[in-house]
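>> received
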Amino acid sequence: MKTYFDSSAFAKRFVEEAGAAEVEKLCLQTTVLCLGVISVPEIISALNRRKREQTLTGKQYAESKQRLAADINDAEVVYLNEAIIRKSISVLEKNSIQTLDALHIACALECGAKLFVSADLKQLKAAKHSGLPTRQV
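>> returned
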């Protein structure tokens, strides 16, 4: 199954928190892993925040960053283009969500994802409203 993970969900592959086991399970069931190009800086930002807060060591940060790079190599990365910008505008006009959340939904629509995975309830509601099957982690 072609599955799109937003940053809030995919980051759970690199930090132990609620939903991490479900993300791993979904990754194993996924035939095509889709990520938006914006996921990389978002996940790096989250990892850096944990490092600053000292809930992640420098070694753990480096290992997580390396694992993220490996996952990106195996993923279908969705890059921003005119069609995605148009779709994100439509999502924003129909839902009360943040810009990056709308961009993730637009990326999922553009790549033809059969499942949209997120930890963000408002984003999941907007994704479902946009016609995507969803899963909360």
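>> The first strand starts at residue 2 and ends at 5.
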